[in-house]
Write a structure and sequence with these properties.
It is built from two helices and nine strands, in the order E-E-E-E-E-H-H-E-E-E-E. It is mostly beta strands and 166 residues long. Strand 8 (116-126) and strand 9 form a beta hairpin. The structure holds coenzyme A. The site of coenzyme A (COA) has 13 residues, from strand 6 and strand 9.
């Protein structure tokens, strides 16, 4: 097998609450990638067995929740205060997420408007036993709005897009 790919998926069958649960724990195929240098690492998360769907992979809604959280980090810095998610413009699940993956959430501000900030969030998995090798599992674009204490839009005070790592 090529060094560029992980092993095919297999399943195990751990028990949860006495019920048999088919959880995939083995790495799956996927092209290895470099982490994008123009993005900022904003979050790392490891999914738990309770986060799986009926296929034994990680539930898409769990990933979406963390993407929303990760996507808000850079907008919160620009807004210097509260932000609210106004739109999920694009969301693609490119590869399944598995138990044992270490997920890295990398973000890049794409656009800063008067009150809104649009962010790309790319999620990379380090598969079980293949740590240090990254597979892109999800890519999304979300828009956040700077809000005041009454929940109304307010102007973004810092409209200069910062370099990665800030
Ligand atoms: C976010 C919120 C305060 C915006 O209020 P609003 O009156 O709709 O605001 P506006 O129409 O003035 O738009 C504000 C900004 O959002 C942008 N925006 C609004 N709808 C958008 C959409 N569907 N996609 C992308 N951007 C959008 C506008 O272009 C504007 O950006 P700009 O000022 O940079 O030009 C309001 O919609 C809200 O409270 N939504 C719920 C937020 C929330 O609870 N999110 C968590 C998910 S449950």
């Amino acid at each position: 097998m090529s060094d560029e790919f992980c092993k095919p998926a297999k399943s195990s069958a751990p028990k949860q609450g006495g019920k048999l649960l088919d959880v995939n724990i083995q790495p799956v195929q996927g092209p290895m990638e470099e982490l994008p240098a123009d993005h900022t690492l904003v979050l790392k998360v490891i999914p738990r067995p309770s986060d799986v769907n009926a296929n034994g992979d990680i539930f898409g809604g769990w990933v979406m929740s963390w993407v929303d959280m990760a996507g808000s980090v850079l907008p919160a810095r620009h807004a210097q205060g509260r932000v609210a998610t106004v739109a999920v413009n694009q969301f693609v699940f490119k590869q399944p997420v598995r138990i044992g993956d270490i997920l890295s959430f990398l973000a890049k501000v794409e656009r800063i408007g008067h009150t809104s900030i649009t962010v790309n969030v790319s999620v990379y998995a380090e598969r079980l036993e293949r740590q240090g090798r990254y597979i892109k599992v999800t890519e999304a674009t979300l828009t956040y709005v700077a809000i005041d204490n009454d929940g109304r839009p307010r102007p973004v005070p810092n409209r200069v897009i910062e370099p990665p790592g800030v």
